[in-house]
UniProtKB/TrEMBL annotation:
Keywords, sorted A to Z: Membrane, Transmembrane, Transmembrane helix
Membrane-crossing residue ranges in chain numbering: 20-44
Family annotation (Gene3D superfamilies): Glycoprotein, Type 4 Pilin (3.30.700.10)
Pfam families: ComP_DUS (PF16732), N_methyl (PF07963)
Keyword match Transmembrane: yes
Organism: Dyella flava
NCBIfam families: IV_pilin_GFxxxE
Name of protein: Prepilin-type N-terminal cleavage/methylation domain-containing protein
Length: 159
């Protein structure tokens, strides 16, 4: 005959079930959380890079306004870089400090210009290889290049 265990009142005792989590269950949960965090951090970093590009757009827009103001006063884009004209010099750094603004690739001519925003080395935006330079010219042509030189205009200028 089989003997059964009883509790203190003569009733049969059910087998003990362990409470809590096993180590394997806990490790599976930790692995899932780690994978989800890695995906979330990567997505967040890309989102922040794309949102910081608005600093370049604002700086280019402001510089473009200055160039057009100068042209209206002097009928010449070249005078922006000189202090002898009534034109205000263009700021060389964006408001948030993520981009440097330049007139180029060569100095502006009397009738054309190209403004370029490039990420400042050492800033949080320096890792943005997709939009390594963002440009706009006097005809409002918007271009962007990756760090490898590929045309990324549609990616970088979408708003």
């Amino acid at each position: 005959m089989l003997s059964t265990q009883t509790n203190g009142r003569g009733q049969p005792q059910s087998p003990r079930r362990p409470y809590g989590f096993s180590l394997i269950e806990l490790m599976i949960v930790v692995a899932i959380v780690a994978i989800l965090s890695a995906i979330a951090m990567n997505s967040y970093a890309k989102y922040m890079q794309s949102s910081r590009r608005s600093d370049a757009y604002a700086a280019l827009s402001q510089a473009q306004g200055m160039m057009e103001r100068c042209y209206a006063l002097t009928f010449n884009y070249k005078n922006v870089a000189t202090s002898s004209s009534n034109c205000t010099d263009i700021s060389t750094t964006s408001q948030e400090g993520y981009y440097s603004i330049s007139i180029g690739p060569a100095a502006a001519t009397t009738s054309t210009y190209t403004l370029t925003a490039t990420p400042v080395a050492g800033s949080a935006q320096a890792a943005d290889t997709t939009c390594a330079s963002i440009s706009i010219d006097n005809a409002n042509n918007k271009t962007a290049l990756s760090s490898g030189g590929a045309n990324e205009s549609t990616t970088c200028w979408q708003q």
